[in-house]
Amino acid sequence: MSYSDKIKDVITESDVALFMKGTPQFVMCGNSDRALNALRRAGAPVTAVDILPDPSIRQDLSVLSGWPTIPQVFVKGELIGGADIVEELERTGELERTLAEKLGDGYRDSRTESVVQL
Amino acid sequence: MRVYQFRHIRARGSVALGRYDRVVSVERLQGLLQREFPDAKQLEVVDRTGGGDHFQVTVATPAFDGLSLVDQHKRVYNALAGPLADGTIHELRISTKGTT
């Protein structure tokens, strides 16, 4: 079974999609934690997908994105990077600018964090 | 001359790696990056934990001028595709910039 279609749905339908090891409630990797916390500090409405239940999820995701490692962060369908880039964008203020630009100035108001199972 | 020590230490997890293996890992990564970015102004590989599998890579090169951070990091991932696939790299932190 391929996860490609389900992954594409999450990427295109979520304001901010975070593919991570574990869930926001139980993070299983330091880098996923770094990305999640940078997004939280920026007030991003995160939709998280745990890639650990099936190795095929990660394989199909990396084929789609061209990005070999986890975590991966997408804003409105566009890959913005992994933990290093998200932290760097946070430091320069560009993360919040990008979120405001793509989601609207009131993006912080929704304050949602959800988990999607593929 | 570099003196390799074969005194084994207990690395993170259960794999014992000698100093020699770790130096080889750093040099292998540096070699791959130098081949990919021959014009790099800065090119650094740091073994973050001393275990030979967690690396910080820093690259500044004119090849990155005009590229997004995502595309800059993808170039680094491509250069290190071998050690990423064979398990040499367990964790990779990347910092990139152009020169303009």
How would you explain this protein's 3D organization?
The complex is a heterodimer of chains A (118) and B (100). By secondary structure, chain A is an alpha/beta fold. Chain A is built from five helices and seven strands. In chain A, the strands form two sheets. Chain A has a five-stranded mixed beta sheet with strand order 6-5-1-4-7, with helices on both faces. A two-stranded antiparallel sheet of chain A has the order 2-3. In chain A, a hairpin with a 2-residue loop joins strand 2 and strand 3 (26-27). Chain A is globular and about 40 Å long. Chain B is an alpha+beta fold and 100 residues long. Chain B has a single domain (22-97), classed as 2-Layer Sandwich (GMP Synthetase, Chain A, domain 3), CATH 3.30.300.90. Chain B contains three helices and five strands; from the N terminus they run E-E-H-E-E-H-H-E. In chain B, strands 3-4-5 form a three-stranded mixed beta sheet. Chain B has a two-stranded antiparallel ribbon with strand order 1-2. The longest helix of chain B is centred in the N-terminal third of the chain and has 18 residues, at 19-36. At the A-B interface, strand 6 and helix 4 of A face helix 2 and strand 5 of B.
